């Protein structure tokens, strides 16, 4: 089947019911999306399908009918997305394993809400688990990213 | 590399060992140098100046042997070396190095000695030194016990200084100038005319000359890096999704594996039927492993699907099947058992009339780092390679050598970045299972990834613990406090049973952070009871202090309430250690303790000295219609020196959230011999919507340095318990509090 990931069209030969996460990781060798739970309970695997944040571990590849963006497609070390730049500025990460998913979720939030309140952030981000407990910095970084996106 | 170079480096190490140790105990073997593990792989033109600095054509690599689980260990170790080496963090590579006895951890022995960590007298220091010597002899390259900074604070700076001075000597030789005319900055020796000789250009020369071992560490007033905000070396990668972890390991020809091992931990597999599995797409092989069965496939998900489709009959557990039975064992141990140790016995408890009697409980807890356990192993006829995230590389090397029949020198353990640990990666069962699979797949690299459910079900948890307290108050003061605590032994389960590593004497983790608190209560006794082994247990972030901090401080708050005293004032009155007192004064000042609060708000305070670090916390909550909401936490921790204030604040806040999240939401319980929880929907800690605002202050009132990875955890639960008591009139007696109270 055809799958567009980060602007590149791929032809993948997998079962329809394989979760997108494992197509990305094991077939396309994109390691940004992480496996944490397999049941959409942690958010480490979050990617965008058609611009909307989804848990790729519970999204079957056969059900996808839009382009996929992973954290690698959001930005990279030499050209960071505003969310990534804010994450760096606040040094949010500890182990960092959840942060790709956190950033993809935050980017989705900010695409729909240019000035999120604490409550908006809680609502949008509480499906993304961080076992290291970096939540105070996640909140701060989301606000910084919102500001820099507004300022263009 | 020439013979002369080798001898020079050996000689050098004799000198440097004396500097690195910095502590002479008249103990011959202690002073013997260990082989420099980097010598074996050096090519011409490389110099391994110490086991911590490697310079070659690729640049300057700083060896950071304490593993990075997310706590920023690589960065802080690199900063300590770079401080004296005169190089910047954006100019270096970091590498955890090979498993080696050269990377022994002296500080980890500190928690095992029978002296409170605030006692820096000659006897206590001598005993710590002795334990350090024991650790060195056994070559324990362990990351744990909040020891990375205390262990490396002088050792790593000394390594940087020795390397710097030797490079200057090499530059003096090459240029014909006197060493005193040379300076160093940004990875180069600078000549008087401004010409720069990069360290790489000096590597070959430095390997040939006699090393300079007579160095003096710079005073703190000259520090460029230590104490100032840093950007962690891993931060760009972790902010862009480009950081690679153990689970991201890839090799040509690598296959993917999954296992299912008896969830009744330690029980046998009676039989399995994989007839439906071997024809599933991508499945290559079904392989029995210790206590279970594994599948080799061409993709992780296909391996997961296949291993779940195997029909297995499991034997019973080698411990009681039901949770109630576990609690009964603890109660029986206190009632009828012999004490494992009574490390504190002040005054007269037997004559004191108890006015307050309590019983508290702390549950089993899983570690559940977000990156599940994984290991990649390649077995060939001549060597074994292991790639994994792991805190005990030397022990893992020994285990794999034993399993494969190889010499330990032929087992190469490569430590990769970890997506959290919290103590989980102090265990290496996943490496053992991966090795079993790889032995059946000789010549093919096998990556074993645990499903989250397997990770949780197979976890060696924090032990359950039960505490019984009797106490008395008089004239508004706490006058008597007796604590009896029972739990299964972490040391027996983790070190003795699984690593074959004898730990003589009492298990000090059972009474950790109970007996050594800096309070002068006139009648004060702590007794530990070592319960029989139940479910297998291990070290969980802050180890014994994680449950005992709750027990001690919740009980002390109950007694202070009984006395009618203020919980900050009464602690300050009882405290015998000035730096500890200052942490409590700091959080009282930061929070405006004693001020008016709105009717539905309440505050609680707690303190715990663990891993040598005093930590005080005050929490403010709102008791609203939706339940209890955590609003704010103020926290102060005394560490002697905050190496990187940015990372410090993050680690402390994370520790508080770790402590609160599990205190409210989490437990592992057994039914039918198996953990009843298996994924993040039933074991999750704290999420963003429950996380409070956190205000952190690092304290520097001592002349020695201690760690901060674990000490913020223990005070969180009892501070919250006190706030809940003040808000509701009901004192929590067992975790998780969410079983008894509603949280927003």
From TrEMBL, chain A:
Keywords: 2Fe-2S, Iron, Iron-sulfur, Metal-binding, Oxidoreductase. PANTHER family: BLR6218 PROTEIN, OXIDOREDUCTASE WITH IRON-SULFUR SUBUNIT. This is (2Fe-2S)-binding protein. CDD domains: fer2. It comes from Aliiroseovarius halocynthiae. One of its GO terms (molecular function) is metal ion binding. PROSITE patterns: 2FE2S_FER_1, 2FE2S_FER_2. The lineage of its organism: Bacteria, Pseudomonadati, Pseudomonadota, Alphaproteobacteria, Rhodobacterales. Residues 1-74 form the 2Fe-2S ferredoxin-type domain.
UniProtKB/TrEMBL annotation, chain B:
The chain crosses the membrane at residues 12-30. Keywords: Membrane, Transmembrane, Transmembrane helix. It comes from the Bacteria. Residues 240-318 form the Aldehyde oxidase/xanthine dehydrogenase a/b hammerhead domain. GO terms for molecular function: oxidoreductase activity. The keyword Nuclease does not apply. This is Xanthine dehydrogenase family protein molybdopterin-binding subunit.
């Amino acid at each position: 089947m055809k799958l567009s990931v980060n602007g590149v069209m791929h032809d993948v030969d997998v079962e329809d019911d394989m979760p997108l996460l494992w197509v990305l990781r094991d077939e396309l060798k994109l390691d940004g999306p992480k496996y944490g739970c397999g049941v959409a309970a942690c958010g480490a695997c979050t990617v965008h399908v058609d611009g909307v944040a989804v848990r790729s571990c519970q999204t079957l590849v056969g059900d996808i009918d839009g382009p996929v963006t992973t954290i690698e497609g959001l930005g990279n070390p030499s050209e960071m997305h505003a969310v990534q730049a804010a994450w760096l500025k606040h040094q949010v990460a500890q182990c960092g394993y959840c942060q790709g998913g956190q950033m993809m979720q935050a980017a989705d939030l900010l695409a729909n809400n240019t000035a999120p309140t604490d409550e908006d952030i809680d609502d949008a981000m509480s499906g993304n688990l961080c076992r290291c407990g970096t939540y105070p910095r996640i909140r701060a970084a989301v606000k910084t990213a919102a500001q820099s996106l507004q300022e263009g | 590399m020439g013979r002369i170079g080798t001898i020079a480096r050996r000689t050098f190490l004799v000198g440097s060992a004396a500097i690195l140790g910095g502590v002479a105990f008249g103990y011959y073997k202690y002073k013997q140098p260990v082989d420099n593990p980097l010598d074996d792989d050096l090519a011409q033109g490389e110099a391994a100046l110490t086991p911590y600095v490697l310079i070659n054509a690729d640049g300057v690599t700083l060896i950071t042997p304490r593993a990075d689980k997310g706590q920023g260990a690589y960065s802080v170790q690199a900063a300590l070396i770079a401080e004296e080496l005169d190089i910047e963090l954006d100019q270096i590579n970091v590498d955890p190095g090979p498993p080696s006895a050269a990377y022994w951890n002296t500080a980890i022995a500190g928690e095992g000695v029978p002296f409170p960590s605030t006692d820096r007298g000659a006897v206590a220091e001598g005993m710590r030194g002795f334990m350090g010597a024991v650790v060195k002899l056994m070559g324990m390259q362990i990351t744990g016990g909040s020891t990375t900074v205390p262990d490396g604070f002088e050792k790593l700076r000394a390594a940087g200084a020795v390397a710097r001075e030797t490079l200057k000597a090499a530059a003096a030789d090459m240029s014909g100038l006197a060493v005193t005319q040379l300076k160093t900055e940004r990875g180069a020796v600078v000549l008087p005319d401004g010409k720069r000789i990069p360290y790489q250009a000096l590597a070959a020369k430095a390997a040939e000359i006699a090393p300079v071992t007579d160095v003096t560490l710079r005073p703190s007033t000259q520090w460029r890096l230590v104490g100032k905000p840093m950007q962690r070396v891993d931060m760009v990668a972790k902010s862009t999704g480009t950081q690679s972890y153990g689970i991201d390991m890839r090799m040509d020809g690598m296959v993917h594996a999954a296992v299912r091992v008896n969830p009744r931990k330690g029980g046998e597999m009676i039989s399995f039927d994989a007839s439906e599995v071997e024809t599933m797409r991508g499945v290559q092989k079904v392989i029995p492993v210790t206590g279970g069965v594994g599948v080799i496939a061409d993709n992780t998900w296909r391996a997961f699907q296949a291993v779940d489709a195997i029909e297995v009959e499991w034997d019973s557990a080698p411990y009681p099947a039901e949770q109630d039975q576990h609690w009964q064992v603890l109660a029986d141990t206190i009632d009828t058992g012999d004490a494992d140790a009574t490390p504190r016995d002040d005054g007269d408890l037997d004559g004191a009339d108890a006015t307050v009697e309590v019983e508290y409980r702390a549950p089993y807890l899983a570690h559940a780092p977000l990156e599940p356990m994984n290991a990649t192993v390649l077995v060939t006829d001549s060597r074994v390679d292991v790639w994994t995230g792991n805190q005990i590389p030397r022990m893992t090397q020994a285990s794999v050598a034993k399993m494969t029949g190889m010499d330990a020198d032929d087992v190469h353990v490569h430590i990769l970045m970890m997506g959290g640990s919290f103590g989980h990666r102090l265990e290496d069962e996943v490496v053992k299972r991966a090795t079993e699979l790889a032995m059946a797949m000789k010549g093919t690299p096998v990556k074993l990834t645990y499903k989250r459910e397997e990770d949780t079900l197979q976890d060696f948890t924090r032990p359950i613990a039960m505490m019984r307290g009797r106490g008395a108050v008089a004239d508004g003061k706490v006058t008597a406090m007796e604590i009896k605590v029972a739990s299964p032994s972490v040391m027996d389960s983790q070190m003795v049973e699984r690593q074959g590593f004898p730990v003589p004497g009492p298990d000090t983790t059972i009474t950790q952070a109970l007996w050594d608190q800096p309070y002068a209560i006139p009648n004060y006794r702590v007794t530990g009871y070592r319960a029989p082994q139940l479910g297998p247990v291990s070290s969980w972030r802050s180890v014994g202090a994680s449950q005992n901090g709750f027990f001690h401080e919740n009980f002390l708050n109950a007694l202070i309430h009984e006395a009618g005293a203020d919980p900050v004032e009464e602690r300050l009155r009882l405290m015998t250690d000035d730096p500890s007192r200052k942490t409590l004064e700091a959080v009282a000042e930061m929070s405006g303790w004693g001020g008016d609060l709105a009717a539905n708000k309440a505050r609680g305070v707690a303190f715990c000295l663990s891993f040598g670090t005093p930590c005080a916390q005050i929490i403010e909550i709102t008791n609203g219609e939706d339940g209890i909401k955590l609003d704010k936490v103020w926290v102060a921790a005394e560490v002697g020196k905050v190496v990187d204030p940015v990372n410090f604040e993050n680690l402390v806040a994370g520790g508080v959230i770790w402590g609160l999240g599990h205190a409210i939401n989490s437990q592992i319980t057994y039914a039918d011999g198996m953990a009843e929880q298996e994924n993040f929907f039933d074991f999750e800690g704290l999420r963003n919507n429950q996380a409070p605002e956190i205000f952190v202050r690092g304290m520097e009132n001592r002349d020695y340095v201690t760690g901060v990875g674990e000490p913020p955890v223990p005070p969180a639960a009892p501070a919250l318990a006190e706030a809940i008591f003040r808000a509701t009139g009901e004192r929590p007696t067992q975790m998780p509090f969410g079983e008894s109270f509603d949280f927003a």
